[in-house]
Structure formats: C-alpha cells, structure tokens
Amino acid sequence: MIGISTTIAFLIGFHSGLSMKQSSSLSLVVFTALSLFVVFKVSRPLNLYRILILFGMILLFIGSFTIPFIRNLFDIAPFVTTKANGILIITILGTLGMIFIPKIVKKIMNNPQIC
Questions:
Q1: What is the pLDDT of residues 60-115, one digit of tens each?
Q2: Does the pLDDT of residue 39 top 80, yes or no?
Q3: What are the angstrom distances between the C-alpha of 29 and each of 46, 62, 65?
Q4: What string of DSSP letters covers 6-55?
Q5: Residues 6+ apart with CB under 8 A from 76
C-alpha cells in the first residue's frame, strides 16, 4: 500500500508539471508520512520512550527538508509550486486523519451520552 501510494504521488506530481527532482521529493514525503503512521500503529501502546522516538523521527524528517545542508546532501527539492503544496497538504491531513479519526470515533461510541 505504501509503495503504491508513493508511486501514485510521483506520477501525479510528474504529470502535473513538476520536475523529476520535485516529483521524487514529493514521493519521499508521501512514503515517510505513511511509514510514520505505520510506526505509530506498531509502537502502541505508547510509553514515554516510544513517544520520544516517534517525535524524534518526525523532527528529523522536518529537518531534512528545512536544513539546507541536509537537503543538498540527499538531493531533496524544495517545494515552491502550488501543485506540490496541495498534494503535501492532502498527505499530511490524510495521515493526521488516519491517526485521530479512529480515536474520536472510539470515544464517541464509548460515550453513552452522545449516542
């Protein structure tokens, strides 16, 4: 599933007019976001150590796009086009939705006052 989503993100980006470097960077973002979701799901129940590792991975991921030396080292393209930004926003919101929507639904279903 992660591989298919990564390939689809690359193809959408490339056929939308992004360069090869931007399209591969976009697929890297999709791959990392989905992989972090899998790590979150597998590392449950969360304790302090696992939370620190998860947030450390998220900070390293953000740092790889914002620190110029690391961005150049891994040949990651900065996103300046609105096409890439739209796909990035959808990916981030989708990942957050996969994390938080099941929790919200579970709380609603367990609360007899709401149902």
A1: 888 888 888 888 888 888 766 566 667 667 777 777 777 777 777 777 777 767 65
A2: yes
A3: 24, 10, 10
A4: HHHHHHHHHHTT--HHHHHHHHHHHHHHHHHHHHHHHTPSP-HHHHHHHH
A5: 25, 28, 64, 65, 70
